[in-house]
Amino acid sequence: MKKTFFLVLLALVAGVALAIQLTRDPGYILIAYGNHTFETSLFALLVAVILLVVLFKLLVSLLRWLNPMRWFRSGDSGRL
Protein backbone atom coordinates (compact mmCIF):
# COMPACT_ATOMS: atom_id res chain seq x y z
CA MET A 1 0.00 0.00 0.00
CA LYS A 2 2.79 2.40 0.92
CA LYS A 3 4.70 1.55 -2.25
CA THR A 4 1.66 2.23 -4.44
CA PHE A 5 0.98 5.52 -2.65
CA PHE A 6 4.61 6.54 -3.10
CA LEU A 7 4.54 5.72 -6.82
CA VAL A 8 1.29 7.64 -7.35
CA LEU A 9 2.67 10.61 -5.42
CA LEU A 10 5.92 10.50 -7.41
CA ALA A 11 4.00 10.38 -10.72
CA LEU A 12 1.84 13.30 -9.59
CA VAL A 13 4.85 15.42 -8.61
CA ALA A 14 6.62 14.59 -11.88
CA GLY A 15 3.49 15.46 -13.85
CA VAL A 16 3.11 18.81 -12.11
CA ALA A 17 6.79 19.63 -12.63
CA LEU A 18 6.52 18.70 -16.30
CA ALA A 19 3.35 20.78 -16.71
CA ILE A 20 5.01 23.81 -15.15
CA GLN A 21 8.05 23.43 -17.39
CA LEU A 22 5.93 22.97 -20.53
CA THR A 23 4.01 26.19 -19.83
CA ARG A 24 7.30 28.09 -19.76
CA ASP A 25 8.80 26.44 -22.84
CA PRO A 26 6.74 23.89 -24.81
CA GLY A 27 9.85 22.41 -26.39
CA TYR A 28 10.40 21.56 -30.01
CA ILE A 29 11.17 18.17 -31.49
CA LEU A 30 12.51 17.81 -35.04
CA ILE A 31 13.21 14.33 -36.34
CA ALA A 32 14.76 14.13 -39.80
CA TYR A 33 15.42 10.93 -41.71
CA GLY A 34 16.45 11.21 -45.33
CA ASN A 35 14.03 13.54 -47.09
CA HIS A 36 11.35 13.18 -44.39
CA THR A 37 10.95 15.41 -41.34
CA PHE A 38 8.67 15.22 -38.32
CA GLU A 39 8.11 18.36 -36.21
CA THR A 40 6.10 18.55 -33.00
CA SER A 41 6.09 19.95 -29.51
CA LEU A 42 7.41 17.89 -26.62
CA PHE A 43 3.96 17.69 -25.04
CA ALA A 44 2.33 16.34 -28.21
CA LEU A 45 5.08 13.74 -28.56
CA LEU A 46 4.63 12.63 -24.93
CA VAL A 47 0.86 12.31 -25.39
CA ALA A 48 1.34 10.33 -28.61
CA VAL A 49 3.83 7.96 -26.98
CA ILE A 50 1.56 7.41 -23.98
CA LEU A 51 -1.40 6.70 -26.26
CA LEU A 52 0.65 4.24 -28.31
CA VAL A 53 1.79 2.40 -25.18
CA VAL A 54 -1.80 2.18 -23.88
CA LEU A 55 -3.10 0.94 -27.24
CA PHE A 56 -0.30 -1.64 -27.44
CA LYS A 57 -1.10 -2.91 -23.93
CA LEU A 58 -4.80 -3.14 -24.80
CA LEU A 59 -4.00 -5.08 -27.96
CA VAL A 60 -1.76 -7.50 -26.07
CA SER A 61 -4.45 -7.98 -23.41
CA LEU A 62 -7.06 -8.63 -26.10
CA LEU A 63 -4.83 -11.18 -27.82
CA ARG A 64 -4.15 -12.94 -24.52
CA TRP A 65 -7.87 -13.05 -23.80
CA LEU A 66 -8.72 -14.40 -27.27
CA ASN A 67 -5.71 -16.77 -27.28
CA PRO A 68 -5.49 -17.34 -31.06
CA MET A 69 -2.99 -20.18 -30.62
CA ARG A 70 -5.76 -22.48 -29.34
CA TRP A 71 -7.31 -22.35 -32.81
CA PHE A 72 -4.24 -24.03 -34.30
CA ARG A 73 -3.83 -26.98 -31.94
CA SER A 74 -2.87 -30.17 -33.70
CA GLY A 75 -5.39 -32.98 -33.39
CA ASP A 76 -8.52 -30.81 -33.22
CA SER A 77 -9.47 -31.61 -36.83
CA GLY A 78 -10.51 -28.02 -37.51
CA ARG A 79 -12.98 -27.77 -34.61
CA LEU A 80 -12.99 -24.63 -32.45
UniProtKB/TrEMBL annotation:
The chain crosses the membrane at residues 43-63. Keywords: Membrane, Transmembrane, Transmembrane helix. Pfam families: HemY_N. The keyword Transmembrane applies. It is found in: Membrane. It comes from the Bacteria. Residues 27-68 form the HemY N-terminal domain. GO terms for cellular component: membrane. The keyword Cytoplasm does not apply. This is HemY N-terminal domain-containing protein. It comes from Pseudohongiella spirulinae.
